[in-house]
Amino acid sequence: MQQYVAPSTSLFLLLCCCSGFFPASLGQGGATSLMNPAASRDIVDQTCKKCYELSQTLSYAFCSASLVTIPVAHVTNLEGLAVISMELALQNATSTVSTITELLEEKSLDPFMTLSLKGCLQLYGGTILTLVDSIGAFMMGQYGTSAMWLSGVMEAATTCEDRFQEREGKASPLARENWSLFQLSGIAVCIIHLLSPAIPS
Ligand SMILES: *[C@@H]1O[C@H](CO)[C@@H](O)[C@H](O)[C@H]1NC(C)=O
Ligand SMILES: *[C@@H]1O[C@H](CO)[C@@H](O)[C@H](O)[C@H]1NC(C)=O
User: Fold this and answer.
1) Model-level pTM?
2) I want to staple 191 with a disulfide (CB 3.0 to 4.6 A). Which of 1, 31, 82, 154 is the partner?
């Protein structure tokens, strides 16, 4: 069985925040939220609202619940929120790989299920690497590349779901996992578009 090891991007994120990598740019948001948790809750709130308006597939409730529980969100701006959603997506993808590995150990699986799960294991394993690359590209200011790779992550989750849809009447055992990875990557793509409206969607 392959092992997927996610590098510790948390530490990277922390270092970047502490060393002032993220400029306190974009007017409101940045500097004020360093001192004021209410202000950062406002940024989360406004960002999730805008993303819902821009793409109705994104859930406002999921977005605000996911972003606001992360302590780092209390000292951040739009750039920071983008990294946080990618980081959450990375955690999601990593735990989904473990979930699939566990599912594959069940004795009662039929051949269709085994084959579909194995395909999904590869897809989700690939998203871990792609997400690490997306975070790297974003950190280097390559927003277009980052957004493109994140769309690839959303596509991978969808492709996995499609494997289960091929057999009618059988619900995907990874529906929830698809949902959160799709949402978290979608939020990151949306924030990149807010930061850089010229990037094609
Ligand atoms: C995925 O992320 C969401 C939101 O942060 C969280 O509620 C959920 O538990 C995560 N799922 C997994 C499998 O990590
Ligand atoms: C995967 O999740 C997204 C929402 O995050 C949803 O829009 C999409 O329909 C789901 N895909 C499938 C095939 O269920």
Assistant:
1) 0.83
2) 82
* Alpha-carbon separation of residue 109 from 63, 97, 106, 146, 173 (angstroms): 34, 17, 6, 37, 12
Assess contact for 191 and 76: CB atoms under 8 A. no
- Taking the centre of ligand 2 as the mean of its atom positions, its distance from the CA of residue 185, in whole angstroms, is 12
Tell me what percent of the residues of the chain surpass a pLDDT of 90.
63
Read off the pLDDT of residues 69-128 as tens digits, 9 standing for 90 and up.
Answer: 766 555 578 999 999 999 999 999 999 999 999 999 998 999 999 999 999 999 999 999
Give the closest residue (by CA) to ligand 2 atom 10.
Answer: 179
Span from the CA of 96 to the centroid of ligand 1 (angstroms): 9
CB 162, CB 45: distance < 8 Å: no
